[in-house]
Amino acid sequence: MPIKVDEAPNGHAPSKLPTVQRLPSTATVDEVCEELKLAGGVIIERFLENEVLDQMEAELRPYLEADWTKNKEIVSEDSFLVSRTQRCAGFFGKSKTSALAFLTNKLWRGVSDKFMTDRYSYWEGPVRKTATCAPAVNNSIVFSVRPGAPNQPLHRDDIVQHYINEAIDVYPDLDSEHHREGCIGLFIAGRPSTKANGATRFIPGSHLWAEDVPPLESQAFYAEMARGDACIILGSAYHGGSANTTEDEERLLFSSFMVRGYFRQEENVYLSTPISTVSKFPKDVQKVFGYQRYFPHGNYGPDGRDPIESVEKWEEYWSCGKPADATVQFKP
Ligand SMILES: O=C(O)CCC(=O)C(=O)O
Ligand SMILES: [Fe+2]
User: Fold this and answer.
1) For the chain, what are the domain ranges?
2) Which of its termini does the chain have fewer beta carbons within 10 Å around, N or C?
């Protein structure tokens, strides 16, 4: 029997889901945070200027085109790593313009600080102490989603932090000692993002749901954006890239997440033990240092693969050399 508009087998009627707001880039940190607390996602119009986007694209296009030139189809067995999509992971290391555009943006830093700064109280002997932990960059990936790319399954990005969410009615006060969110993401449209060319879709209000509630396609809102608009989304909100049904449009999306700063090893082994030293260790020792993937989607290397495969090639990766056969034009 077809599902009526107001019914949903997961208990969240589409008509009762919150409305997603579009705010101007002059909105305050508090205004953006309020919308995120209500809907789990918000669109910010005219977030980046065309000149900055042009420069970001020029710096990153060669990396996107290199693999595409080698394999026009890029068929993926993994439905999460969508076919006909070229990704460039770690683009902050390859495009200084991009790193600074994201990480010096006061609105993004303000909002991500609000959601990701962790407050924690504990005993040290008889003394009750409180610590705060600032967020850190979780990832940076640019997606070039080509015609023919299918839907990415709806997912939460806090699966990477193995988060287990409980159902809540109202989002916690951001200055309290809560740990609701593992990460928060900023998607910037490098080209217009439409339902037809695969705009990110997400389920408004799903950031309040328990872990055992499955997402439904009928609940999704498509975050259509003009070039330069942005979408901020909580790690607990169900979302995914969508099918590109156009003949000739590329969906270009710059994406970066911030994570709670304690999702890492206590000692910064990557600074205390140079990679030139680690690369001479046996593979098993390299792995236990931290050069190994975990699932889902955790700790991938600079090319998106298991970092254990990259340790020996560290000089090649760290030089960030542009691929020699790269072209700078998008061709569908
Ligand atoms: O392609 C998109 O719009 C989003 C991609 C995404 O959510 C992911 O790869 O985790
Ligand atoms: Fe995602």
Assistant:
1) 28-264, 268-316
2) N
Cα(143) to ligand 1 centroid in Å equals: 8
- Find the farthest-apart pair of alpha carbons in the chain and give their distance in angstroms, rounded: 67
Query: Percentages helix, strand, coil for the chain, rounded to the nearest 5?
Result: 30, 20, 50
Query: Is 38:171 a contact under the CB 8 Å cutoff?
Result: yes
The residue-averaged pLDDT of 250-256 equals: 98
Q: What is the reported pLDDT for 54?
A: 97
Instruction: Report CA(88)–ligand 1 centroid distance (Å).
Output: 13
User: Atom 7 (ligand 1): residue with closest C-alpha?
Assistant: 240
Mutation choice for ligand 1 from 239, 242, 244, 300, CB with most ligand atoms inside 8 A: 239
pLDDT range class, residue 326, cuts 50, 70, 90: very low
Given a cut of 80, whether residue 77 has pLDDT beyond it is: no
Taking the CA of 304 as reference, the closest ligand is 1
Q: Which atom of ligand 1 is nearest to the CA of 81?
A: 9
For 132-160, how does the pLDDT look when each residue is reduced to its tens digit (9 = 90+)? Answer: 999 999 999 999 999 999 999 999 999 99
- The residue-averaged pLDDT of 250-264 equals 97
Q: Are 144 and 330 in contact, with CB atoms under 8 Å apart?
A: yes
What's the CATH number for 28-264?
Answer: 2.60.120.620
Entry pTM: 0.94
251 lines ligand 1 (CB under 6 A): no
Instruction: Let me know: does 131 contact 122? Beta carbons within 8 Å.
Output: yes
CA atoms within 13 A on the CB side of 158: 23
Kindly tell me if the per-residue pLDDT of 228 is higher than 70. Answer: yes
Tell me if 311 sits within 8 A of 278, measured CB to CB. yes
Whether 303 has a pLDDT exceeding 60, the answer reads yes
Q: Is the CB of 143 under 6 A from ligand 1?
A: yes
How many CB atoms are closer than 10 A to CB 75?
7
